[in-house]
Amino acid sequence: MSAIAKGVIVVVNRGESTLTIIDADSMKSVATIPTGTGPHEVALTADGKTAIVSNYGEQTPGNSLSIIDVATRKETKRVDLGPMLRPHGLVEVGGKVYFSSEGNRAIGRFDLATHKVDWIMGTGQNASHMVVVTADQKRFYTPNVASDTVTAFEFSAVPPSQSKITQIAVGKQPEAIDVSPDGKQVWVGLNADGAIDVIDTATNKVVERLNLMGRPYRVRFTPDGKSLVATMPNSKELVVIDITTRKEIKRIKLDGTPLGIAFSADSKTAFVTTSQGDFLNRVDLQKGEVTAKVATGKVPDGVAVFGL
Asked: Are 196 and 187 in contact (CB under 8 A)?
């Protein structure tokens, strides 16, 4: 592949420490690339040229990011994060990669231009697992699985700058998280409660709890901000929720155990990784059915898309 394909999907396989590149048009795997040990999440730059992978590790904590050139299908750099252990959640904004460091109770920022970590901020909470960022890079939210909180960081400008940190009490074992496209809401999946807490970002308070009757492994807003989709491993289904009414629209059954999720730009299609079979599934959210699937590596987890 000498150029970026029109539509590209990247999937990390934490069961074998690889990344799979998939051509979205044909829904065929075109390359499998070794990463660091135990990759859990992946992000793509806005131009689709670079994939960034968080190498969480296995029994031994990981402390690296894999930087992968999508066109050449090669890992161009493995970033040693030094004492920053268990990198997990990833967001790329404007050439900056924000990541959680679960082992250090912190979030950090990696500059793709200088290839250096140029900013770190502590949460003071236990098991800071994922991270989400508003488009202006002024607000960050990370769920702290072992503290039953979400840490909200608010900055006067792009960090480092004057900041405010708020610890928001939520339900039991918060892990999944996303911020709405308009920045007004943060939805947090609660592993132990089998529910979602809805946070009003103006007040940094939980305003509603939605009972899903099961663990929401990941929660993601569709790009149009109209719906949220939760992957439900125990029941092997997707739950689609209307943001305005906060009511379930539908549940979509899958063959395997759903984990990671990403969307097409028009919000009509979801791309969902499933273990127990190890596939990436293309799901028509309007029809509520899987329209195609492609084999990945072992235990596919995080997924990101470009050009769709």
From this structure: yes
SS3 159: coil
Burial class (CB in 10 A: 0-12, 13-18, 19+), 78: middle
Interatomic CA distance for residues 268 and 285, integer angstroms: 6
Beta partners for residue 221, in sequence order: 228
pLDDT digits (tens, 9 = 90+) for 122-172: 999 999 999 999 988 899 999 999 999 999 999 999 999 999 999 999 999
Measured between alpha carbons, how far is 281 from 271 in angstroms, rounded to an integer? Answer: 6
What Rg, from alpha-carbon coordinates, does the chain have? 18
Question: Quick one: DSSP state of residue 197?
Answer: E
Sign (positive or negative) of CA dihedral 258, 276, 57, 303: negative
Q: How far apart are CA 102 and CA 147, in angstroms?
A: 12
Closest CA to 262 of 1, 12, 4, 6: 12
d(CA 133, CA 135): 6
Nearest to 280 by CA among 42, 36, 37, 38: 42
Residue corresponding to tokens 């099961």: 214
